[in-house]
C-alpha cells in the first residue's frame, strides 16, 4: 500500500522554499494518494534551542499554514509529532540500528553544527534517525521533500534495510523520495548558491509566507541579480545563479516552465522582471495569508484539529510499534 508521509519544522518563518519545495506539492499529492500524513515535527525543532511559548505558537501556525495553503485536514492526517509517542520509541530503536559512520556523513549536521560541533545537541546529530522513524512508524512509502532532504531519505532506506536484515523480516518498506516540481531547491535572494532557509540570519535572504505586501516588494527589489537582460533560452542562465533563481521562482509561482518564462521575459532586464515577480508573489501569497490569519484567530479549533489528527495517527502507529517491539524482543505489558 502506498502511503505519503512528510513533515515541516515549526521553527518560525516558513518561507517560499518551504512552500514551493514542500507544502504546495502536498496539496497536489492529496489528490493522487488516498493516504497522506503531514506532520509538524516539533521534536525535530528542539534539536536547536526553541523558546517554549514561541514553539507552541509556531506549531499552531505551521499547521495553519499547511491548511491555508490547501492541505485538507479531513482527507489527510495533520498533527504535531510530539503527540504520538511511537515516533520517539521507534527513533530510539533506530539509534541502535544506524551506524555512527552513516551519521558522520550527513551534510545537514555539518552545516547546522558549524565549526563548533562539540556544542551541538546530540539530538541534532541523531535527527536523521528520528526522521526515519517518523516515516517508517507508518510504513510510509513515499516522502515528498525538497532536494536538501535527499541524503536523509537515503539514510532512512539504509536503516530500514539493516533492520529488516538484522531481524530477518520484511517489515519496513524502502522509502522513495518524491522530489518534483519546478522549485526543488529555492535559493537565497542574497546568494544564488545557498539555499533559502529559515535560519539564515539575513531576513532579506528569504520571502517569508507572512511577509506583507511592502516587505515582499522590498525584498524582491533588493534581491541580488545582475546587469544583463534575461536570456531567451535556459542555457543562457548558466553561470547566473541569482538570475536563474528568480526565474525559477517566477516559473514555480506561475506554474510555467522556465522556457515559457524566458519566452515572455527574454531580452528584458530586471527593472521589468522584478516588478512582475513582485506582483505574482503578492497575488499568490495574499490569499494564503488571509486564510492563515482566520485560522490563527481560533486557537481552540486548531488544537482540536491537531488532537484529532494525532488520534488518527496513533491508530496507525499502535499496531506497527507493537510489532516492532515484539520483533526486537521487548516483553509486552
Ligand atoms: N530552499 C528550499 N527549497 C526547496 N525546498 C525547501 N525546503 C526547505 N528549504 C527549501 C523543504 O521544506 C520542507 C520542510 O523543511 P523543514 O522546515 O523541516 O526544514 P529545513 O529543510 O531545514 O528548512 P530550512 O528553511 O532550511 O530550515 P532551517 O533553516 O531551520 O534548517 C522540507 O521538505 C524541505 O526539503
Low-confidence segments:
none
Rg, alpha carbons: 21 Å
How many structurally independent domains? 2
Structural class: mainly alpha
Share of residues in strands = 5-15%
Helix content range: 40-55%
Please tell me the overall pLDDT.
96
Structure report:
With 333 residues, the protein is mainly α. It folds into 2 domains: 4-184 and 299-328, Rossmann fold (3-Layer(aba) Sandwich), CATH 3.40.50.620; 203-293, Tyrosyl-Transfer RNA Synthetase. It has helices spanning 16-32, 42-45, 52-69, 86-95, 100-104, 107-113, 122-136, 150-166, 213-222, 241-254, 258-265, 270-296, 299-328; strands at residues 4-8, 36-40, 77-80, 142-144, 176-178. The strands form 2 sheets. A 3-stranded parallel sheet has the order 1-2-3. Strands 4-5 form a two-stranded parallel sheet. Strand 4, helix 8 (150-166) and strand 5 (176-178) form a beta-alpha-beta unit. The mean pLDDT is 96. It binds adenosine-5'-tetraphosphate.
Jot down its keywords.
single chain; 333 residues; mainly alpha; Rossmann fold; Tyrosyl-Transfer RNA Synthetase; binds adenosine-5'-tetraphosphate
Topology:
Elements: E1 4-8, H1 16-32, E2 36-40, H2 42-45, H3 52-69, E3 77-80, H4 86-95, H5 100-104, H6 107-113, H7 122-136, E4 142-144, H8 150-166, E5 176-178, H9 213-222, H10 241-254, H11 258-265, H12 270-296, H13 299-328
Parallel strand pairs: 1-2, 2-3, 4-5
Helix pairs in contact: 3-12, 4-7, 4-13, 7-8, 9-12, 10-11, 10-12
Adenosine-5'-tetraphosphate binds next to helix 1.
Amino acid at each position: 500500500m502506498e502511503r505519503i508521509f512528510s513533515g515541516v519544522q515549526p521553527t518560525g518563518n516558513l518561507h517560499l522554499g518551504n512552500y514551493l519545495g514542500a507544502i504546495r506539492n502536498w496539496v497536489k499529492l492529496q489528490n493522487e494518494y488516498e493516504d497522506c500524513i503531514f506532520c509538524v515535527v516539533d521534536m525535530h525543532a528542539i534539536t536547536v534551542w526553541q523558546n517554549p511559548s514561541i514553539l507552541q505558537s509556531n506549531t499552531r501556525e505551521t499547521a495553519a499554514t499547511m491548511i491555508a495553503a490547501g492541505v485538507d485536514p479531513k482527507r489527510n492526517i495533520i498533527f504535531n509529532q510530539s503527540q504520538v509517542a511511537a515516533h520517539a520509541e521507534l527513533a530510539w530503536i533506530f539509534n541502535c540500528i544506524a551506524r555512527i559512520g552513516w551519521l558522520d556523513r550527513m551534510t545537514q549536521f555539518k552545516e547546522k553544527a558549524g565549526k563548533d560541533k562539540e556544542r551541538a545537541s546530540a539530538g541534532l546529530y541523531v535527527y536523521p534517525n528520528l526522521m526515519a522513524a517518523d516515516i517508517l512508524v507508518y510504513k510510509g512509502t513515499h516522502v515528498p521533500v525538497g532536494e536538501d532532504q535527499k541524503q536523509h531519505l537515503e539514510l532512512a532506506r539504509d536503516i530500514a534495510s539493516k533492520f529488516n536484515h538484522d531481524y530477518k523480516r520484511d517489515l519496513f518498506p524502502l522509502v522513495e523520495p518524491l522530489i518534483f516540481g519546478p522549485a526543488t531547491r529555492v535559493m537565497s535572494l542574497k546568494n544564488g548558491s545557498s539555499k533559502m532557509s529559515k535560519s539564515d540570519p539575513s531576513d532579506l535572504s528569504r520571502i517569508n509566507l507572512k511577509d506583507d505586501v511592502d516587505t515582499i516588494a522590498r525584498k524582491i527589489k533588493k534581491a541580488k541579480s545582475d546587469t544583463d537582460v534575461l536570456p531567451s533560452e535556459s542555457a543562457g542562465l548558466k553561470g547566473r545563479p541569482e538570475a536563474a533563481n528568480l526565474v525559477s521562482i517566477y516559473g514555480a509561482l506561475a506554474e510555467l516552465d522556465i522556457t515559457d518564462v524566458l519566452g515572455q521575459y527574454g531580452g528584458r532586464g530586471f527593472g521589468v522582471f522584478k516588478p512582475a515577480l513582485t506582483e505574482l508573489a503578492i497575488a499568490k501569497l495574499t490569499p494564503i495569508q488571509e486564510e492563515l490569519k482566520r485560522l490563527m484567530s481560533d486557537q481552540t479549533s486548531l488544537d482540536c484539529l491537531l488532537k484529532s489528527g494525532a488520534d488518527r495517527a496513533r491508530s496507525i502507529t499502535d499496531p506497527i510499534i507493537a510489532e516492532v517491539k515484539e520483533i526486537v524482543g521487548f516483553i509486552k505489558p
